[in-house]
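Saturday, quiet lab. Running sequence design on the structure tokens for the scaffold JK sent over.
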């Protein structure tokens, strides 16, 4: 088994990627990922992590008032602590999304097991299992 280099955010250069760590994950060897056991992509320290477009806002409908917030003239999904307001966690520990059918395009576009998904897991997985989302 060989380790793969995964890009991680360089804190000195926000929004730029720098390959600074090498890691190995069993998922890299073809293990199928289960979004309900992970939840990493829904965690963030940035209030501007999930951009909501005009089409997304319209899709959210009346839920938009409670699920989104504006920073200047840009709209984002709101955070509750370290995770998206729509993230839920059941009694058996599985993650879910309370707005799944109406979720923003950025969430729809993140494919399970894609390089972007694996990068999210690498960067955030410890956070998802260290804290418990409300729900």
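Result came back. Writing it out in full:
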């Amino acid at each position: 088994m060989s380790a793969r280099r995964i890009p991680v955010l360089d804190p000195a250069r926000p929004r730029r990627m720098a390959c600074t760590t090498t890691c190995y994950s069993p998922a890299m060897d073809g293990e199928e990922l289960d979004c309900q056991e992970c939840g990493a992509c829904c965690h963030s320290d940035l209030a501007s992590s999930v951009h909501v477009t005009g089409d997304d806002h319209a899709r959210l409908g009346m839920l938009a008032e409670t699920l989104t917030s504006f920073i200047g003239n840009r709209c984002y999904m709101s955070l509750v602590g370290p995770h998206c307001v729509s993230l839920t966690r059941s009694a058996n520990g599985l993650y879910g999304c309370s707005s799944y059918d109406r979720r923003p395009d950025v969430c729809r576009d993140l494919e399970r097991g894609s390089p972007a998904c694996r990068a999210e897991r690498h960067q955030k997985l410890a956070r998802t299992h260290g804290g418990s989302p409300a729900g």
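Notes for JK: The first helix runs from residue 35 to 38. Strands lie at 4-9, 17-23, 51-52, 68-71, 74-77, 79-80, 83-84, 87-89, 95-97. Ask whether to fix the surface positions before the next round.
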